[in-house]
Automatic annotation (TrEMBL):
PROSITE patterns: PROTEIN_KINASE_DOM
Domain Protein kinase: 16-298
Listed transmembrane segments: none
Organism: Nonomuraea roseola
Positions with biased composition (Polar residues): 279-288
Tagged with keyword Protein biosynthesis: no
Name of this chain's protein: Protein kinase family protein
Length: 496
């Protein structure tokens, strides 16, 4: 099949059906497609026969597929064969920074959190020698799932043929431009970008955010200058890597809620609604209305009458109680004070003494045991994962595989919080028991279509030395299927 025959309805890799042509640029076409196996939308790039950088794009996509930060777009498949090349990645639904800025600058803290999340994600990519190089407002998205996504790491640069001698500096400056845009609603470039007007200039230099928009905190103004405005840094050092930008923004309060939900009563004023083409969410700006005037005289009379009645009743009850005590003193055993009710302490984190990949029905009984400690080390960028399988049901080879934690002694289990990959489609079970044998581990909680941070709470009291996170269904991952666990935290009920 040649690229010239690609049209709506074309099926790639016998599973990805092209549906809607989203955009075309210089021989590369972006489609919205359907993954027919997992019944979910995906984004697919296809290429004309004369597109000059097919190999570079496919190579970059395959490298990006190994990135594990959920804030970066997942790449599911990339191939170049039979005269047709394509890249399949996550379909992200939400509002880009361009959409969010349609009504003007964001609140400073909101802009800072968006860029801080993006900086942390790009720092992860740079640790794997992958870069973005073309950060624009359309590449930073606040998703309908209330998370940040950075689109196009490595792939967009390959599509545009961009290279640089200092990719870390380029991406740090790109993050600075995004922060400038979020704080001011302007783009610090010579031309408009993403519908944003160019930033104003003074004496041949871009104005700082505080010179453009009132109310920008001084520390955010300084961070922006350190990242992207060298003429305004004064005595401050430059931020020359995404990691440095992330560190500078590390103290920004999180989590972030971008959209405002009005209270149910009184009804909000009419909303000004802006729709983003091709996106499912709406951004609303609500205009506050003054409250109706109070009626102070009537209200005060009612309150005064109510207070007087309360005082009279309290005096009467007090006198009656005192009289009873004087006339009928209580016996000593009754007069003793009762002990205070026992307090219930908060659940406590219990660290496992050991972790291992658990594959009791496989050939060797283990599943990447060398990676198991990475799921309990508390680091968000390390993880344990299963072997790659050909389908979501573990290649129809066995009913499950998982991560087994040895708590060192019998432990009461309150909750287990597991951070999985962002890809949906996983089914997980929580099993607890006193032996590392599958038959002795009892299922105490289940969750289907799990992704991201998952809380598994036993349906009833559960105690055991061994805790198992058991995958019975796996999400898609770079054209295969595998389960991934970034972190596991076990909570035990607190004691008084």
């Amino acid at each position: 099949m040649s690229a010239s025959t690609v049209e709506p309805g074309t099926r790639l890799a016998q599973r990805f059906r092209l549906e809607d042509r989203v955009s075309e640029s210089e021989g590369a076409t972006l489609w919205k497609a359907i993954d027919e196996i997992l019944a979910r939308p995906v984004a697919v790039h296809t290429f004309d026969p004369d597109f000059p950088r097919v190999t570079e794009v496919v190579t970059a996509a395959r490298a990006a597929s190994r990135l594990t930060d959920p804030r970066l777009t997942q790449v599911f498949d990339a191939a170049e064969d039979d005269g047709l090349a394509y890249v399949v990645s996550e379909w992200v639904t939400g509002e880009s920074l361009s959409d969010l800025l349609a009504g003007g600058p964001l609140e400073p803290e909101r802009a800072a959190v968006l860029v801080a999340e993006a900086a942390e994600a790009l720092a992860h990519a740079h640790e794997h020698n992958l870069h973005h190089l073309c950060l624009r407002p359309g590449k930073l998205v606040w998703t309908t799932g209330n998370t940040v996504k950075v689109l196009g790491v490595a792939v967009d640069a390959a599509l545009e043929g961009l290279t640089t001698d200092d990719p870390a500096l380029d991406d740090a400056e790109g993050l600075g431009r995004l922060l400038y845009a979020g704080l001011t609603g302007h783009w610090p470039g010579d031309e408009e970008e993403g519908g944003l007007p160019a930033a104003p200039m003074s004496d041949g230099h871009f104005c700082t955010p505080r010179q453009v928009t009132a109310g920008v905190p001084g520390y955010l103004d300084t961070i922006t200058c350190r990242a992207v405005l060298p003429e305004s840094r004064k005595s401050h050092s430059a931020l020359s890597t995404p990691g440095q930008v992330a560190e500078a923004l590390a103290d920004v309060a999180r989590p972030l809620t971008i959209q405002y939900t009005p209270p149910p009563s009184p009804p909000p004023a009419p909303a000004v609604v802006s729709r983003s083409e091709g996106l499912d969410t709406q951004q609303r700006t609500y205009v506050s209305q003054p409250l109706p005037p109070q009626q102070p005289s009537t209200l005060n009379r009612v309150l005064m009458t109510f207070v007087v009645l309360l005082v009279i009743a309290a005096v009467g009850v007090g006198a009656w109680t005192l009289g009873r005590k004087l006339g009928n003193p209580a016996p000593p055993e009754v007069a003793q004070s009762q002990p205070p009710p026992s307090a219930t302490a908060e659940p406590q984190i219990v660290k496992p003494s050991n972790a291992t990949g658990f594959d009791p029905l496989g050939d060797d009984g283990a599943e990447h045991p060398e990676l198991a400690d990475d799921a309990v080390d508390g680091k968000p960028d390390t993880f344990w994962h299963t072997t790659n399988y050909n389908n979501a049901t573990l290649g129809n080879l066995k009913p499950g595989v998982g991560l087994l934690l040895d708590m060192g002694k019998p432990t009461k289990i309150a909750d287990v919080i597991a951070t999985l990959s962002s890809a949906s489609g996983a089914s997980v079970e929580l099993k607890v028991g006193d032996s590392p044998d599958l038959s002795s581990l009892k299922t105490v909680a289940k969750q289907k279509d799990a992704s991201g941070k998952v809380t598994l709470t036993p349906d009833e009291a559960a105690t055991g030395q061994y805790v198992l996170i058991w995958f019975t269904r796996l999400p898609a991952d770079a054209g295969k299927f595998r389960g991934t666990i970034y972190d596991v935290v076990v909570y035990s009920p607190g004691t008084a």
